[in-house]
Amino acid sequence: MNAAVTKTDSIGDRAHLIETVRRNWALEMDGVEMYRALAERERMPERRAIFKKLSEIEHRHAEQWAGRMRNLGGEIPTRHSGKAHATRIARTAGGMQAIIQAIEEEERRDVSSYLHQMREFRDDETAAILRSVILDEFSHALVLKRLYAESSPRRAMAYLRRRERQGTGSWIGDAVYGVNDGLGSIFGIVSGVSGATLGNSRVVLLAGLAGMVASALSMGSGAYLAAKSEREIYEAELQREREALKAHPEEAKEELAILYQLKGVPEEDATKMADFLAADSEQFLRTMAADKMNLTEDALSNPISSAVSGSLSTAIGAFIPIVPFFFVSGYPAVVSAAIVSLAAHFAVGAAKSLVTVRSWWSSGTEMTLVGAVEGVVTYLIGIGLGHVGG
Fold it and tell me: Has this prediction a pTM greater than 0.85?
């Protein structure tokens, strides 16, 4: 018997190990083809680069299994001709969101299969490869989960808003985000309509107020859906982990231990931490959800309060550019609106430093310049449209 497999019990066990390694090789080769097909299909350069990298990692896994097969005395197939389920998924119609979600589920099943093999085979070299591959495959699942979130408008909105608020109070991020959106959109409307009507206060007020209401309602509904989606994602993840813990408690603990290892915790310590948390099932579930999604129940936003905050802050930002037109008309109103709006742009930009790492003056100056360009462009377009209409 090969010295590398002295811990296998019999020739039958060794043959079973060789066959399992061969299936693992085929599975990883299928992953190579799958991610390569996705890279060719993907139009976004960033995602294409990610899929290519994942394909390279799958190829490295296949080479590891090929090397193990040689050491065991098994024959390596000359080529991979099978078309397994994962490759078919890469060609599935229904949009990238459905494809990524299906592949993420396949990656999780692969992790489960490899975890089962670690318990089944008493072979040090195979276990070392399994441990390395499991860590990579679990990382793939997390990457795909992020890509899936960014492929879904509601989930992407929830994720982006959560990132914007991270490290500060939720209401601060919502308020800054809303004021910024309302100010920017209505300043563009006011500038364009002013250019087209030479600052006719009645027309500008009608357009500005209509835009303000529309922007406030849009932002409020968006904030509501984002907060609701955020909570639904969290609850769905909890339910999935609850079912997994009930059906396969040992695999669930191993999965949490892997998460800790991905963060740099030594394997032995990670296992002890997972065992300790498993004593309290609800705490275990909350920890799994928090480590996978970087989200806790306390950090979830209330959909109603998010909607109200988003609507009011957007309305406040939108109201600023139209204030001068309540008192004056013509060019004085246009100039006053520009001054007030650009000052507000600077103030909002400076306030964004509360939720970013940039200095207040840098953020304020940048937003002022963006607002100035927006105002000039829309004003000139309005003049052109005014002449066409005339």
Answer: no
